[in-house]
Fold:
Amino acid sequence: MYMFDNLKIGKKMVLLSGTILSLLLVVLLVGMYGLLNTVKSGQMVSEGDQLNTEFAQLEIDHLNWANHVAKFLRDDTINELEVEMDHRKCGFGKWYYGEGRQHAEQMIPEIRSA
Structure:
């Protein structure tokens, strides 16, 4: 502490102010880094929720399809099965063979092998 004893009050104030500003800058940078990570995490959660919602809708569509097939099999008055028979043209097929799956694989690389 003896090296500060010989400094004039003006130089001590400049040194103190510089130290405080440096610490504030460090706090600002750490805060910004944390905020950016929080935003990135929020975006990932939002995309995951959208994917989950999309899958739920695809499952509902498939259950409706299965219900139409079951009605056709049970009801003798229905003479024609009016459902999509091409697995690439149904809602899930369009997702699976289209851009939806590619986007999901970018979000969750582990599903590529499935």
Summary: The CA atoms of residues 69 and 81 lie 7 Å apart. The chain is about 75% helix and 0% strand. Residues 2-112 form one domain.
